[in-house]
Each structure stands twice: as C-alpha cells, then as structure tokens.
DNA sequence: CGCCGCATGGACTACATGGTCCCGCTCGGC
DNA sequence: GCCGAGCGGGACCATGTAGTCCATGCGGCG
C-alpha cells in the first residue's frame, strides 16, 4: 500500500504479499476499510517507535542535525519515491476515511510531541532561548519534513527535502543561546 | 477528483459533473489515464495562473506576508480539507503515473520560480541581503506550504499551516537587510 | 422541403475486485 | 487409532467500472 497507494492495492495484492488466503483476511478484518485502518495504525506505531528511538535522547542541536541526516539518508535510498510512510497515507486517506484521518492526526501530534520534548529539554538546559516555543518549532520541523518529502517524491530528488529541513533547522538555530 | 481523490473518482462521476456522455469523454480522451493527465495539466495551469497574479509584482516582505495570508485564508474556507490542488494530486499520482509526476514536478519548479523571481527582485533592490539564495528560499517556502497543507488537511485545522508558513517567512526575514 | 451524414447519448459488455462459502485437512480428544 | 470439530484454502458470486457500439436526432446541403 505504501508503494502502490492504498486505493490501487487490491485484496489479491494483500493476499499475495502476506502469503495467506481470502478467508484468513476476512477472519481478521471485516472488510477492506478496516484492513486499511489496521495498516495505518501499524505504520503509525512503527514510525513512532523508530522516532522514539531517534528522539528520546535529543538534547542538543547536533542531535537535531543527526535526526535530519538519518531521515534524508533513509529517503535517499529510494530517491524520494513513495514519500513519508505516514504522510502519503495521510494525503490519500484524509478526505476519504475520517477514522484513518483521526489516527494519522494523532500520530503527527505525537511525532511532533517527541520533537517538542527534545526541544524543551534543550530549553531547560539553556541551549535554547526561553522565548522559543518548542511546540511551534516542532510543528514547523514536521511541516518542513512533510513538505520536503512531497517535493522530493514529485521531483525524484531529495534536494528539496534537504533544503526544507535545513531551513527548519536554521529557524531552530535562530533560537539557540549565543 | 480534487475532493474525492483521483482513484476514487469514476468516469460516471466525471460524466455527471461535466453533463456529458461517455462517448464525448472518449472522443476527447483515449482513456482515463489521459483524462487524469489533462486534469493535472489544467489544474497546474490554473494554480500557476493564480500564483502568477499574486507573485509577479512581489517585491517586498509585506508582499510575501500578503501571499501567505491569501493562501491561508483560501484554505481556511474549507477547514484545510482537500489540501493543495497540486500537492494532493502529487501525493496520489507521483508513484503511479510517471508522466503526471513529471508535469507536477515542472509545475512546482515553476511555482518556486515565481517566488524566487520575487525574492531576486527584493535582493536587487537591496531589501534582501546579497548572500541570500532566492532559489533555496523559494524551495523552503514551497515545502513549508505543502507540509502545512498536509498537516492542516490531516488535522482539519489550519493552525499548522500558519505556523509552517510563519517559520518560512521568519527564515526569509533573517535575510532582510537591517 | 427532403435526404444524407455525423455527432451524441446512453444502453451494453467484459472484466477486475471486494466479499462469501464450502470442501478438505489437520489436530485434539477419547 | 478413529472420529469430530474447527480452521484454512481457494473456487465462486455479485457488483461496480472502464471502455464499446448502435439507434436517434439534428444540421447542412441539394
């Protein structure tokens, strides 16, 4: 679903990819909609798990740069294709399945929360100025990340993603204490 | 297609919306794929036309703020739903129709070009520092815009879009001459 | 005024795809 | 070792959708 898009993925594709049969599918999921929701939930859990590992110890600007580098490098492997696991689902499902949209919205909030928590640690340790707003900075970083993913996916080139994240990092940098 | 998504839009929907018949459809377009490509091209032309109007005279930071406000206000009308006319098409088609992807990529480049041209004018008139890179700033603005659209669409709330664009504008501001 | 040609509408077809169901196999209990 | 229950496999069905085709009516020309 990540590669082909949710709507272009048939249950036969799912069957083939999972080495199961239709009846097993319908044992676990009442219909395709529920299956998609499960996919969304699983993907969200997976991404958040990974990001938790990458961000729970974030406490310096260098850490943020490393975070950026890891995401860019990961995306470079496929030349930007398919975009962000959550972002591409969001783009396709937001106006189609309100429940999926809600799950994705929560996931983004949580993802931004991980960033915000790290930024707050930086603020508490005096790395970041007191007038910085960790939540807003986190939202800005997430938007730059998602926008970067989309432009990279469209251009088949990760440059725009790098530029976007660098812009967001520069913005954070402007709140560093001298 | 903008509202329901490309793949969820049937030719019957198209027929109904256009008050025509199947034969007329197939008179003009060999198949659905070509129809979609025509939609992409038309949408891109429309957005670029609008943005040309909004950006061709851009030559001050205030102008950039007005540009931001216009986009936010436009998106607020639908509570962020459906996202960017180009962005949502890009998200759905980028990994499905290479020709559509290419068209969209060109459109984004042109859109960024309009921004870059305005920024260059600001630079030439001394509003923007000489070491600013108009192309990179334009890409950053576009990424913030697209990321903002996506987060707003997912959250059904335009706040993230505002925050993202404000971040990008702040970044541009950091290149203003004192 | 009538006839011919062609665009048009919308019924029709083939097919893909979501969803159901029954047969057979396996595994557990007696 | 045999029997029965329950699970899994994949054939099957119904439906919606992309794409085709022919009867109809309208306009243009003689």
From TrEMBL, chains A, B:
Any Pfam family:
TetR_N
- InterPro entries in the record, alphabetically? Homeodomain-like_sf (IPR009057), HTH_TetR (IPR001647), Tet_transcr_reg_TetR-rel_C_sf (IPR036271), TetR_C (IPR011075)
Please give the SUPFAM superfamilies that the UniProt record associates with this protein. Homeodomain-like, Tetracyclin repressor-like, C-terminal domain
Q: Name one GO molecular function term.
A: DNA binding
For this protein, the record's PROSITE patterns field holds: HTH_TETR_2
**What is the organism field in this record?**
Nonomuraea jiangxiensis
Q: Which residues bind DNA?
A: 10-29
Listed name of the protein: DNA-binding transcriptional regulator, AcrR family
* Residue ranges annotated for the HTH tetR-type domain, each copy included: 1-47
| Alphabetized PANTHER family for the sequence | HTH-TYPE TRANSCRIPTIONAL REGULATOR YJDC, TRANSCRIPTIONAL REGULATORY PROTEIN
According to the record, the signal peptide region is: none
Keyword set, alphabetical order: DNA-binding, Transcription, Transcription regulation
Say which domain of life the source belongs to: Bacteria
